[in-house]
Design goal:
With 385 residues, this protein is mostly beta strands. It is built from five helices and 17 strands.
Length: 385
């Protein structure tokens, strides 16, 4: 009897030790609220060539204003010698409808497996953010004033490769931090398997992507530079194959304690990497934003961003930004007018995991169409678990 109890106790201790070496975490975030959106202006109908006026407004439920709603599981296993096996599965969804986002993918936000070490860095394989988006977010996203990534992006349509871009079939490697510097490199064998005209058996049948970035973080200063390139599929038209979209981004943020300042600049040539449509979904006329992974030889766009955040007491903060996007070619955008977006936001923490927020935005020359205007206002709640 005593031997049986001893064996059971040893088994329990052994099981606990093994469990301590591995961990799996269920997590998530829900962001929902109520908002108002209005778009008005005119565009040229591509079929008839006639100028058509379009105007529409909407009051209704919104989601993902402050952060995209998601749930996921992530974990790691201790392999010994400071080496870990890691995985992450993250699914985006809309609280408005309960449906999956990212084109209906089950784990559209991330689906990766990899190895990590404090000494040599981390390698991940699968669908994931490109390096530019990750470094943009780390400088101007969740670490900037509480997480208003949409404050700086969204209907502004700027920064191309840094605008919520994920690649399928992506292999990334990131070095450990050395004197505050971290280098990330990535290569996608097929950037988007959902686009049938850019996917095939042979290597050249697929649109491939290169993503490289360097970031710095030390004390109040954080900064990054990045480069992305798309190599077009051989299945595309000859005109599209002549284009090699490239995107260069640089940004920095400095925390003065009473206020935090962020600046960013981006240049995109020969196409576009990430797209965005109307605020809060839907479509009005030709106002559909910039298409994703578009190839147009000779296209150029410059993006500029100035953003400020400041704490208000111990539980709240205010945020503001100006974004300017200058495109030179209407073959991709539908217009070539310079777009300016002004945004202002406020957040109040109810706890470490729950906050209320309000956001207002105004865009002139929305979707690069002359005199087109977009107005947004939202209030909502975000809960993390």
């Amino acid at each position: 009897m005593k031997k049986t109890l001893l064996v059971a106790a040893l088994a329990t201790i052994s099981s606990g030790a093994v469990h301590a070496e591995s961990s799996v975490t269920l997590y998530g975030l829900i962001d929902a609220g109520v908002g108002y959106s209005k778009v008005e202006g005119s565009f040229t109908d591509p079929t008839t060539g006639q100028t058509v006026s379009a105007k529409g407004s909407r009051i209704g439920m919104t989601d993902g204003v402050m952060s995209g709603s998601r749930w996921g599981v992530r974990g790691k296993e201790d392999l010994g010698g400071g080496l870990y096996a890691t995985f992450q599965l993250e699914s985006g969804f809309s609280p408005r409808t309960g449906t999956s986002t990212q084109g209906g993918r089950l784990f559209g936000r991330e689906a990766t497996v990899g190895l990590a070490s404090d000494n040599w860095g981390q390698m991940k394989i699968g669908r994931q953010y490109n390096i530019a988006s990750r470094y943009f977010y780390s400088t101007l996203g969740s670490s900037f004033g509480g997480g208003f990534t949409q404050l700086n992006m969204g209907s502004g349509l700027g920064f191309s490769s840094g605008n919520f871009v994920r690649y399928d079939n992506l292999v990334t490697y990131e070095t450990p931090s050395v004197a505050g510097f971290t280098l990330g490199v990535g290569y996608s064998f097929s950037a988007d398997d959902s686009r049938a005209n850019q996917v095939g058996f042979e290597t050249a049948d697929n649109t491939r992507a290169i993503s490289v970035g360097l970031r710095y973080g030390n004390g109040p200063l954080s900064a990054f530079v990045s480069y992305d390139q798309l190599n077009p599929s051989s299945r595309l038209s000859e005109a599209q194959r002549d284009a090699t979209p490239r995107s260069y981004l640089v940004g920095a943020a400095y925390d003065f304690e009473v206020v935090k300042l962020a600046l960013a600049y981006g240049r995109t040539t020969d196409g576009w990497f990430g797209g965005s449509g109307l605020p809060n979904g839907g479509s009005i006329g030709n106002f559909t934003g910039v298409p994703t992974n578009a190839f147009v030889d000779g296209f150029k766009s410059n993006s500029y961003l100035v953003a400020l955040s400041a704490p208000v007491g111990a539980s709240s903060g205010v945020f503001g930004s100006w974004q300017r996007v200058d495109a030179n070619d209407d073959r991709l955008t539908g217009g070539d007018s310079t777009s300016n977006t002004f945004a202002l936001g406020y957040t109040y923490k109810l706890s470490k995991r729950t906050n209320l927020y309000a956001l207002g935005k105004y865009t002139k020359n929305f979707a690069f169409l002359s005199d087109a205007k977009a107005t947004e206002a939202s209030i909502g709640i975000r809960h993390q678990f």
